[in-house]
Design a protein that fits this description.
Layout (H helix, E strand, L loop, with lengths): L1 H10 L7 H20 L5 H12 L11 H21 L2 H6 L1 H26 L4 H12 L6 H6 L6 H29 L4 H32 L4 H22 L3 H12 L8 H24 L10 H29 L3 H11 L4 H12 L5 H36 L2 H5 L7 E4 L6 H11 L8 E8 L4 H20 L5 E8 L2 H11 L4 E5 L6 H6 L2 H8 L3 E6 L9 E5 L10 H15 L3 E5 L1 H14 L5 E5 L17 E6 L15 H8 L4 E6 L5 H9 L4 H26 L1
């Protein structure tokens, strides 16, 4: 017993050495600190940093900062930068790249210009020390980025330019670090600049030309191996970080560039993105924040007046420099006060690059201990201020965005949209489900309804059980993206009438159908299924054929006929195509007339859609299939059609599936039938028809056809 207690006491000696106990303690901190501090309206990030201060070597000395902590910390930091690059709205970034450059310049030059005189004249450091310390003020680590990601404002333009500015400032500062180190060692010559330029060029070529092609090939060849996708992405992140280090810049730049390189291939609503965010936000990023706290030595404040003055001066200059840069950016681009606060919050936290600059300078004896200790206190103060500022601004931005939602978006009640996905062929289900998840509004409380219609015969009950069992695996696939899916298996005399009935029962807004198969003799007698569904429902209907994975497409080419803007479902279908373009980070090539283009531009402005639209005038609808000359192999071709009697209906748009299959055989293609009437009118149109006699006749014909088929099978066996 004595040995047991001795062993027990030894396990809890400080600092802890048992890796299992250390990991358990950190997980409890990750679990409890955000929950406890949320009660006090304090951001969870601050709780993790303060916890790191408490348990670190300068606090209660429960944990020492060993190689294991450093490893997880590095992973967390790279993860933050990778997710920032991955979540960046590339369409928004490309359209505002000049703004990112301007903000990057402001947030680099103003802290540097303010900090250098303070360090040189007030703190009385020499040129190298003053320039290196003031360059540290220009850096910022996206410690508060998980807040904007969680609150769903990461697509806002203010966030896009701040994230874009990060790569510019950190790269510039780290190059300054290399230059000052070269200068202090007397190695600053032409060979240094040539080596740096070549290494960065090779790194950029590998990341933006080679890696995306490899990733595209991997995702296409191993489409069903979902767990392998995450491991592959993680491998790319760390390989990119390593390449960046070899190229002469910090690994965080490599992780950010990896996010940019894979941005288009990992849509925001995909299961892979959900896994990346879940594991990062649950484990790796909290580890990094705790390790930042473990660096803080609060006792430096007690080491004399000089240490206190340096720490206070550095913190004030760092925060004021970033606030001033955010203010100038707001005035230059006419942003709101909320956006200015968001820019300041995201760009004011100093951690990774700051610490890298100061540690390198300290080890090279350019900087003294007061700067080192003052920087560590600065890290704590700026992370706390940044977290409060970012959370407050992000919450205010969410409210403002909801209040600003206007016109078309409110008319269609997209917050409560309902998508119906009827399934006839299980083999096509995966891509149709992925498409439906991408276009589904994240705020909609309604699930994505997957429907299977079985024939009303003696085996109907068994067929319903089989259908539910087959569809269950796709519910699991959707749950990986945190999308709610409901399964509906129903009995009807034919698929078309079953789909029409269920669409009315659940009040669906959109019906997503697979591409029609070649019809047989019986189908031609009683009417094609797709035509029957379109004529018997008034919902926005999208018929889909995907030749390749959605992420493999490079453009969405939309052909919209004249007067399509007058259809009741116009806003709905275009909003969904814009959302798909945003998810895939690809532009929309639009072919329409001047009036339709004018309506689309107004819709984009009113609904604040961020898709990149490239318009082209088109009026030759007598020969609209001539558009095939302008459609490339990797384009997703979308043709907007109309039901008979609609304002935009044209005779040449009859029998579209077979025509498109002939003229666009190698393309993924969609046909959209917008909602034509309001729901009440639609119901009056169809509800007075009694379908029972038709159903009985159809059932009789189907039984006759089945009997004839059995006779031929019997003859073949004989």
């Amino acid at each position: 017993m004595k040995d047991f207690f001795e062993h027990f006491r030894h396990e809890f000696e400080l600092p802890l050495e048992n890796p299992v106990l250390i990991f358990s303690l950190i997980l409890f901190i990750i679990l409890l600190s955000p929950i406890l501090l949320r009660k006090l309206n304090i951001p969870g990030i601050i709780g993790l940093i303060i916890s790191g201060v408490a348990i670190g070597p300068f606090g209660l000395n429960i944990l020492e900062k060993n190689s294991a902590i450093d490893l997880f910390s590095t992973i967390g930091l790279l993860y933050i930068m990778f997710i920032a690059g991955l979540e960046l709205d590339m369409n928004e970034f490309k359209s505002n790249k000049n703004k990112s450059l301007v903000f990057g310049f402001f947030t680099f030059i103003f802290p540097l210009a303010i900090g250098f005189p303070v360090c040189y004249f007030f703190l009385e450091y020499d040129f190298n020390a003053s320039f290196l310390t003031s360059s540290m003020f220009a850096t910022h680590t996206l410690v508060a980025y998980p807040i904007v990601s969680k609150l769903g404002v990461s697509k806002n333009q203010a966030v896009a330019i701040t994230v874009g500015g990060t790569i510019l400032t950190d790269t510039a500062v780290l190059i300054i670090l290399a230059v000052i180190m070269g200068n202090s060692q007397g190695n600053l010559n032409m060979a240094f600049w040539i080596r740096l330029g070549i290494s960065l060029s090779v790194f950029s070529a590998i990341m933006f030309l080679i890696i995306p092609r490899i990733a595209n090939w991997f995702f296409r060849k191993l489409e069903s191996e979902k767990h392998s996708h995450y491991i592959f992405v993680l491998s790319i992140v760390f390989f990119a970080a390593f390449l960046a280090e070899i190229a002469g810049v910090e690994p965080i730049i490599g992780a950010f560039v990896a996010g940019l390189a894979l941005n288009k291939l990992i849509p925001h609503s995909s299961a892979l993105m959900n896994r990346i965010q879940f594991i990062g936000n649950s484990l790796f990023i909290p580890f990094f924040l705790i390790s930042v706290g473990m660096l803080v030595d609060v006792s430096v404040i007690l080491k004399g007046q000089t240490a206190l003055i340096v720490a206070g001066t550095l913190s004030v200059v760092a925060l004021f420099g970033k606030w001033f840069a955010a203010l100038v950016t707001q005035l230059a681009f006419k942003y709101t006060k909320t956006q200015r606060q968001l820019i300041f919050g995201l760009s004011s936290s100093h951690a990774a690059a700051t610490l890298a600059v100061i540690l390198v300078g300290y080890k090279a004896q350019i900087l003294d201990e007061n700067i080192l200790n003052g920087t560590i206190i600065l890290i704590l103060i700026t992370c706390v201020v940044a977290s409060f500022a970012t959370e407050k601004a992000a919450k205010k931005l969410v409210v403002e965005t909801e209040d600003d939602s206007s016109g078309p978006m409110k008319v269609n009640s997209l917050d409560n949209e309902h998508i119906l996905l009827p399934i006839a062929n299980i083999g096509n289900m995966e891509k149709l489900l992925e498409f439906s998840i991408f276009i589904k509004g994240k705020k909609s409380a309604n699930p994505l309804s997957v429907l299977s219609v079985v024939s009303n015969n003696n085996e109907a009950e068994n067929n319903i059980l089989k259908a539910r069992k087959k569809l269950q695996e796709f519910v699991e696939q959707a749950s990986a993206t945190e999308t709610k899916v409901s399964i509906i298996a129903t009995i009807d005399h034919n698929a078309a009438s079953g789909i029409s009935r269920i669409a009315k029962e659940i009040m669906a807004d959109i019906i997503v159908l697979g591409w029609p198969q070649r019809t047989g003799f019986i189908d031609k007698l009683i009417g094609k299924k797709v035509d029957s569904i379109i004529s018997n429902t008034d919902k926005t209907t999208i018929i889909c054929h995907f030749e390749k994975a959605l992420v493999s497409h490079q453009r969405i080419v939309i052909a919209a006929p004249p007067l399509t803007e007058h259809e009741n479902g116009f806003e709905l279908w275009f909003t969904k195509m814009a959302k798909l373009a945003q998810e895939l980070s690809i532009p929309i090539q639009l072919y329409c007339n001047e009036m339709t283009l004018k309506s689309i531009k107004k819709l984009v402005k009113d609904s604040k859609l961020s898709a990149t639209i490239i318009p082209s005038q088109f009026s030759d609808w007598e020969d609209f299939l001539d558009l095939s000359k302008n459609v490339r192999e990797n384009d997703l071709f979308v043709l907007v059609s109309a039901r008979e009697g609609a304002a935009s209906y044209m005779v040449m748009l009859e029998n579209l599936p077979s025509k498109m299959e002939k003229h666009f055989p190698n393309n993924s293609r969609l046909i959209i039938y917008p909602q034509q009437f309001v729901q009440q009118f639609g119901s009056k149109r169809y509800d007075q028809i009694n379908p029972e006699p038709i159903h009985k006749g159809i059932e009789t014909i189907q039984k006759i056809g089945k009997g004839i088929g059995n006779i031929f099978k019997k003859d073949n066996r004989e």
